[in-house]
Amino acid sequence: MAAQDAYEQRGLDRVILIPAAQAPLKPHEVQSSGEDRLAMLRDATEWDHRFEVSDYEVARGGVNYTIDSVRHFRELYPNDT
Q1: Closest Cα partner for 18 from 37, 5, 4?
Q2: Are 54 and 77 in contact (CB under 8 A)?
């Protein structure tokens, strides 16, 4: 719902969803693997052109911080919001 709201309220072309490989503040609370969360997210959004699923953090593995992902995507898409 948050991604839908962001898409609609901000007039975006797409929303990139990025499941974490391991949340930095919840190292022992995660019950599913990054690969499983990636697959579930893809299954949940494959029909919806508004959403793109990235495996960036899962492929990197381990703990990822939001700022690192922001820097990666700003470099990948320098003209996008």
Answers
A1: 37
A2: no
How far CA 30 is from CA of 11, 19, 22, 38, 79, in Å, comes to 33, 12, 8, 13, 34
pTM above 0.90, yes or no: no
- pLDDT at position 30, please? 63
Task: Enter the tokens of residue 24.
Answer: 């930095």
Measuring CA to CA, which residue among 29, 26, 4 is closest to residue 17? 4
For 1-54, the DSSP string reads -HHHHHHHHHT-S-EEE---SB-TT-TTT--S-HHHHHHHHHHHHTT-TTEEE-
The answer to whether the CB of 15 falls within 8 A of the CB of 51 is yes
29 near 23, Cβ under 8 Å?
yes
